[in-house]
UniProtKB/TrEMBL annotation:
Gene Ontology MF terms: oxidoreductase activity, acting on the CH-OH group of donors, NAD or NADP as acceptor
Ranges where the Ketoreductase domain occurs: 8-187
Gene3D superfamilies in the cross-refs: NAD(P)-binding Rossmann-like Domain
Source organism of the structure: Nocardioides marmoriginsengisoli
SMART domains listed in its UniProt record: PKS_KR
UniProt-recorded name of the protein: SDR family oxidoreductase
Assigned keywords, A-Z: Oxidoreductase
UniProt xrefs under InterPro entries: KR_dom, NAD(P)-bd_dom_sf, Sc_DH/Rdtase_CS, SDR_fam
UniProt record similarity statement: Belongs to the short-chain dehydrogenases/reductases (SDR) family.
UniProt xrefs under PANTHER family: SHORT-CHAIN DEHYDROGENASES/REDUCTASES FAMILY MEMBER
């Protein structure tokens, strides 16, 4: 541990699995007290318990980030337990299915609600305590899908594009008040969330879909959760003190070709 987040309180949405869990582990290892927020109460508790068992300070809070009352209550509980939030990672997200002609309306609404509205609601709920603490860092989660069109992923591309634009808006509004806001655009990590897309891309064969996906990544592999967590750590800490409104692609060159 190098203590890059010593004395800080970090809230990570979607902290119960994947990138969120990897980031919770890294932030705790760097000295942060961590609020692990997830819609899956059990998953959040498992991560918080793991961090506490290895000497960290952590609590689990359950909320659906698209439901304002749940988000407000989770943030209230977090602040009461750990203190004002210095770092917020809006990581919670869901994928979608289909091109624009076949995507269904419920899928569109769910995708916009969790990815885009969730970022808005959680940021809004955290801001009073972050401002009272004198400032902080907000990290939003976009995707390469906010930058390039990804086939059969219409609602997801739109929602992540909204997160990217919201980040720029937030960075302008909040910089004078001591809060930096940046967005990470990760490339694909092979997770259950990606399987419907990979299956469609592979003509029903996930392995073939994976091979096709790999060809999009000049670096020769897909991302791992730690790759994204390490970027979040940079944006959370003082080494990025002059960085706000930035889009940090962590994509193995996927959007560069
Ligand atoms: C889910 C993640 O944000 C990546 S979007 C799909 C990108 S790729 O599989 O077409 O490289």
């Amino acid at each position: 541990m190098t203590g890059r987040l010593s004395g800080k309180v970090a809230l990570i949405t979607g902290g119960g699995a994947g990138i969120g869990r990897a980031t919770a582990r890294l932030f705790a290892a760097e000295g942060a007290a961590v609020g692990v927020l997830d819609v899956d109460r059990v998953a959040a508790a498992q991560v918080a318990d793991e961090l506490a068992a290895t000497g960290g300070r952590a609590i689990a809070v359950a909320a659906n980030v698209s439901v304002d009352a749940e988000v407000r209550e989770a943030v209230r509980a977090l602040v009461e337990s750990l203190g004002p939030v210095n770092v917020l990672y809006n990581n919670a997200g869901v994928a979608s299915t289909g091109a624009v002609d076949v995507a269904d309306e419920d899928d569109w609404d769910r995708c916009m609600a969790i990815n885009a509205k969730g970022t808005f609601l959680t940021s809004r709920a955290v801001l009073p305590s972050m401002l009272a603490a004198g400032g902080g860092s907000i990290i939003n989660q976009a995707s390469v899908a906010a930058i390039v069109g990804v086939a059969d992923f219409a609602a997801y591309c739109a929602a992540k594009g909204a997160v990217l634009a919201l980040t720029r808006s937030m960075s302008v509004d909040l910089a004078p008040r001591g809060i930096r806001v940046n967005v990470i655009a990760p490339g694909t990590i092979y997770t259950p969330m990606m399987e419907p897309l990979l299956k469609a891309r592979g003509g029903g064969d996930v392995e073939r879909g994976l091979a096709t996906t790999l060809e999009k990544y000049p670096i020769g592999r897909l991302a791992q959760p730690y790759d994204i967590a390490a970027a979040a750590l940079y944006l959370a800490g003082s080494e990025s003190a002059f960085v706000t409104g930035s889009v940090l692609t962590v994509d193995g060159g996927m959007t560069s070709q």
